[in-house]
Amino acid sequence: MSEKISVLITEEEVERRIKEIGAKISRDYAGKELHLICVLKGGVFFTCELAKRITVPVSLDFMSVSSYGDDTKSSGVVRIVKDLDQPLEGKDVMIVEDIIDSGRTLSYLIKVLKGRNPDSLRLCTLLDKPDRRVKEVKVDYCCFEIPDEFVVGYGLDYAQKYRNLPFIGVVESR
Ligand SMILES: O=P(O)(O)OC[C@H]1O[C@H](OP(=O)(O)OP(=O)(O)O)[C@H](O)[C@@H]1O
Ligand code: HPA
């Protein structure tokens, strides 16, 4: 079955904003190197587009986390499915995410990664849904704040579908 999807943020607007945030990050990290942590799977599209817009030297690593089963997603229990390949000690690190919703995933990740002694740790997200927050998370760079709607595209899925949409859409019928 395919769902009805309406456009919330167009492809042009997403690209324009990623360029803007990439330029800001480049200015903020001038003279430094930046280690980006892509949070799989949703963060992949945003990480690639963002990395292309950053002008300081960038290295990349990947991590996958998951809640313990869908039923208990709201329990806030998060586990590492795929850990980073490289240590963070002495690096300026930025976590790159597609969306912050309840904040549970990111509050867990930030705690874990801080414990690995990076020189600095910041968070960059494509989307933020502040109305849904359960756990407080400090967002350093955000492309768009969005209302409490279930969104897809640009890495975000509904039942693993629609990650490949080049815009941010709202699933009208679920
Ligand atoms: O703020 P939260 O309520 O914790 O939600 C945000 C998390 O949910 C999504 O990941 P998901 O678990 O759907 O995995 P995916 O990236 O593989 O789709 C998203 O990529 C964030 O990691
Ligand atoms: O709105 C959303 N869409 C897709 N995945 C998500 N994970 C948290 N919020 C969302």
TrEMBL record:
Keywords: Cytoplasm, Glycosyltransferase, Magnesium, Metal-binding, Nucleotide-binding, Purine salvage, Transferase. GO terms for biological process: GMP salvage; guanine salvage; hypoxanthine metabolic process; IMP salvage; purine ribonucleoside salvage. Its main location: cytoplasm. Pfam families: Pribosyltran. GO terms for cellular component: cytosol. GO terms for molecular function: guanine phosphoribosyltransferase activity; hypoxanthine phosphoribosyltransferase activity; magnesium ion binding; nucleotide binding. InterPro entries: HGPRT (IPR050408), Hxn_phspho_trans (IPR005904), PRTase-like (IPR029057), PRTase_dom (IPR000836). It is found in: Cytoplasm. Pathway: Purine metabolism; IMP biosynthesis via salvage pathway; IMP from hypoxanthine: step 1/1; Purine metabolism; GMP biosynthesis via salvage pathway; GMP from guanine: step 1/1. Its EC number is 2.4.2.8. It catalyses: IMP + diphosphate = hypoxanthine + 5-phospho-alpha-D-ribose 1-diphosphate; GMP + diphosphate = guanine + 5-phospho-alpha-D-ribose 1-diphosphate. CDD domains: PRTases_typeI (cd06223). Its cofactor is Mg(2+). Residues 12-158 form the Phosphoribosyltransferase domain. Gene3D superfamilies: 3.40.50.2020. Belongs to the purine/pyrimidine phosphoribosyltransferase family. Purine salvage pathway enzyme that catalyzes the transfer of the ribosyl-5-phosphate group from 5-phospho-alpha-D-ribose 1-diphosphate (PRPP) to the N9 position of the 6-oxopurines hypoxanthine and guanine to form the corresponding ribonucleotides IMP (inosine 5'-monophosphate) and GMP (guanosine 5'-monophosphate), with the release of PPi. This is Hypoxanthine phosphoribosyltransferase. It comes from Blautia hydrogenotrophica (strain DSM 10507 / JCM 14656 / S5a33). The lineage of its organism: Bacteria, Bacillati, Bacillota, Clostridia, Lachnospirales.
